[in-house]
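Supplementary Note 3. Input sequence used for the single-chain structure prediction.
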Amino acid sequence: MRLKDLETYLNRQQSDFYQFAMALTADEDISEKLIKDSQYLLLAEEREELAIQLNSNGSNPTSFFRYSRIFILGTIFRIARKNNLFQPPRDGYSDRVEHNAFWTLPMDQRAVLCLRHKLRFSKEEVCEILNITKVEYFNLLNLARESLLKNAGGTANLMETF
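The predicted structure, written as discrete structure tokens, is reproduced below.
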């Protein structure tokens, strides 16, 4: 495995990173900064792991790519939460009831909905990315779904929410 392979993989994942960051912040500039900071942390803080994977003949690129993707998504979430980067969308962002209902949800609930319904992660992967237990996952997911349906007047389609 080469560093170029990792760069290519991360570039292919940009749309997922961007969708997740936008679901948390609703700001393009902040989302891009979150992604860049997270990728920097992967390459800087995880340098030893990266060097071992890159230099090992028997390395498993698939597991390292998975690790990289989950690391970046988890870091995006932690940075956004730590710095309270919640921002409601600008005026005119959308006139759809579902979008407005989505943006009234707390950041944790938006993160679970985005990872589970938009990016199609398994519940185990969502728990790993957000560093939560399965009980917390189910609580957040159920609260998010109930709030979303209630705030959208029972008309929300989770797949088209954002």
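The mean pLDDT is 83. The chain is about 70% helix and 0% strand.
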